[in-house]
Specification:
There is one protein chain. The chain has about 300 residues and is α/β, with parallel strands linked by helices. The protein has two domains: about 1-220, 3-Layer(aba) Sandwich (Rossmann fold); about 225-285, no CATH class. About 30% of the residues lie in helices and about 30% in strands. A six-stranded mixed beta sheet has the order 6-7-8-3-9-10, with helices on both faces. Helix 2 (about 90-100) packs across helix 3. The two termini are about 25 Å apart. About 30% of the residues are buried. The mean pLDDT is about 90.
Length: about 300
């Protein structure tokens, strides 16, 4: 089951097409990375899903239903441009934002108490937002995003402004929210976060979707048949079948060499050839990182 389906969405402005026939499927209870360089169209798509702006063409389905105003209460949205009221006290702010999402004051207070105790920020209740650090304000914004327990949570650069300790705290909360049944979409430039958290990804570039799929399948698709060999003693392999693509010296006389298989040989055959050529101490496949795939496709153009 898909929590969100985007079908052939196009958004045009006077002299610019922000989204060009974009279709996506976000599986239920997944963490879905929406990736792309600045200006690619990610934020435009997020704003359309949140009904801040309208698409010129296309359809969006939430849990099988066509997107409509009543879905606003089922979505939690953390924009990149944070939107707290600076003069308002933290407690009043959280109550106000929870009421906007349809919670009664009593329910809002119960849920706010849970979160401020969980984040250990009870002392912030009577502080004004303008007196908080950027990271502290980010915590309040995150709480306001998830207070109403939305099924679909959209986070635009959620780790911006956080130190490593609080970034880990938010990461753990994202994982816990998924375990409790939420679907999380987040847009980020931090590829290490994508590696760590995402189940599925989509890459948008120059207003078009150029890649989508389960992260594991995407990485498998871009395998280059390259292996990392840790060894002692210089070696050379048959250039008809193998190519040395990298080398570095390690401690205590050990070396690491990247070997790419050029022919139809497999890893077992490579190991057999290495056994007769050097003293092997380690062997593993070099799987491309999401950062490498991102750079390859953004610089090289569409994959479709």
């Amino acid at each position: 089951m898909n929590q969100l389906v985007v079908e052939h969405v196009t958004k045009r402005y006077a002299n610019h097409t922000a989204l060009d026939d974009v279709s996506l499927s976000v599986p239920d209870q997944s963490i879905y990375g929406l990736l792309g360089p600045n200006g690619a169209g990610k934020t435009t798509l997020i704003r359309i899903i949140n009904q801040i702006i309208d698409a010129n063409e296309g359809t969006i389905l939430i849990n099988g239903e066509k997107l409509s105003p009543h879905h606003i209460g089922q979505i939690g949205y953390l924009p990149e441009e944070r939107g707290l009221y600076k003069k308002l006290k933290v407690g009043d702010q959280l109550i106000y934002l929870a009421r906007l999402r349809g919670l009664s004051k009593n329910d809002a207070l119960i849920r706010i108490k849970y979160w401020i105790e969980k984040f250990e920020i009870k002392d912030w209740w009577d502080k004004k937002v303008e007196d908080l650090s950027k990271g502290m304000a980010q915590k309040i914004q995150f709480i306001s995003t998830v207070l109403h327990e939305p099924k679909l949570i959209i986070l635009d650069e959620p780790f911006s402004g956080f130190d490593p300790v609080n970034a880990n705290l938010i990461r753990d909360e994202i994982l816990e929210l998924r375990e409790k049944g939420s679907t999380i979409i987040f847009s980020t430039h931090r590829m290490e976060t994508v590696e760590e958290l995402c189940d599925h990804i989509a890459l948008i570039n120059k207003s078009k979707k150029i890649l989508e799929g389960a992260k594991k399948e995407v990485k498998a698709k871009y395998r280059t048949n390259t292996y990392m060999v840790e060894h002692k003693g210089i070696f050379s392999l048959d250039s008809e079948h193998y190519e040395h693509t990298g080398h570095r010296d390690l401690d205590d006389g050990y070396m690491e060499t990247q070997v790419r298989i050029k022919s139809d040989r497999n890893a077992n055959q490579l190991i057999q050839d290495l056994v007769g050529a050097t003293e092997i101490h380690g062997f593993k496949e070099k799987i491309p990182s999401m950062n490498e795939i991102f750079i390859l496709l953004v610089n090289g153009g569409s994959d479709e």
